[in-house]
Amino acid sequence: MAENHCPDCGAQVTGGRDGCHALIDEMMAQAHADVRYAAAYRLAFDAYCLQHPDKYCVSKKSYVAHLIGLCHGLEHHGNPATYWAIPQWLNKPRTLDRPSPPPTRGNMTVADAHGASSPEEHARRVRRWAESVWRAYQPQHELARRWLQQALKAR
């Protein structure tokens, strides 16, 4: 019998973890097929990864990348001109501590963002979902902002 929710994020989705992953895969395919959906994909992926940290944020580097990527997407509007400062900064040797993910990682999931009827609705849904995840990570906001500022200064 198939699970009706994702054990990682709580999404109400047939197929459990695999069904949840299928939703983010569909969003990625949509972003590749239609540029109007692509602008929100990076924000969606960072939110997804932070809700599934046991798979997508195992290393310090991946955790930091998604945390500051989410910060950048929400507080800097995902500006592509500055986003690339993040991986450039992370690819230089540095000592980083990996914070522990919060026990609850937002009250919205990929299931809430999936299935929008227009690119505009899709962007709104993704933003609300990402804001929900960001609120859950509130104790790490200042750390994320500090790392992001370091990345932006290093550009």
Q: Give the rounded overall mean pLDDT.
A: 95
Strand content: under 5%
Number of DSSP-assigned strands: 0
Number of distinct helices: 10
Q: pLDDT below 50 for ≥5 consecutive residues: which ranges?
A: none
Distance between the termini: 51 Å
Q: What structural class should be given to the helix and strand makeup? A: mainly alpha
Q: What's the helix-strand series?
A: HHHHHHHHHH
Structurally, the number of domains stands at: 1
Shape: globular
Q: Could you give a short account of the major beta sheet?
A: none
Binned, the helix content reads: 55-70%
Q: For the CA atoms, what is the radius of gyration?
A: 15 Å
Sequence-ordered SSE layout with sheet pairings:
Elements: H1 16-33, H2 35-38, H3 41-51, H4 53-56, H5 60-75, H6 80-83, H7 85-90, H8 110-113, H9 119-136, H10 141-154
List its traits.
mainly alpha
Structure write-up:
With 155 residues, the chain is mainly α. The chain has one domain (16-154). Helices cover 64% and strands 0% of the residues. The protein has ten helices and no strands. The chain has helices spanning 16-33, 35-38, 41-51, 53-56, 60-75, 80-83, 85-90, 110-113, 119-136, 141-154. Helix 1 packs antiparallel against helix 3, helix 3 crosses helix 5 (60-75) and helix 5 crosses helix 10 (141-154). The longest helix is centred in the N-terminal third of the chain and has 18 residues, at 16-33. It is globular, with a radius of gyration of 15 Å. The protein starts with 15 loop residues before the first helix and ends with a helix. The mean pLDDT is 95.
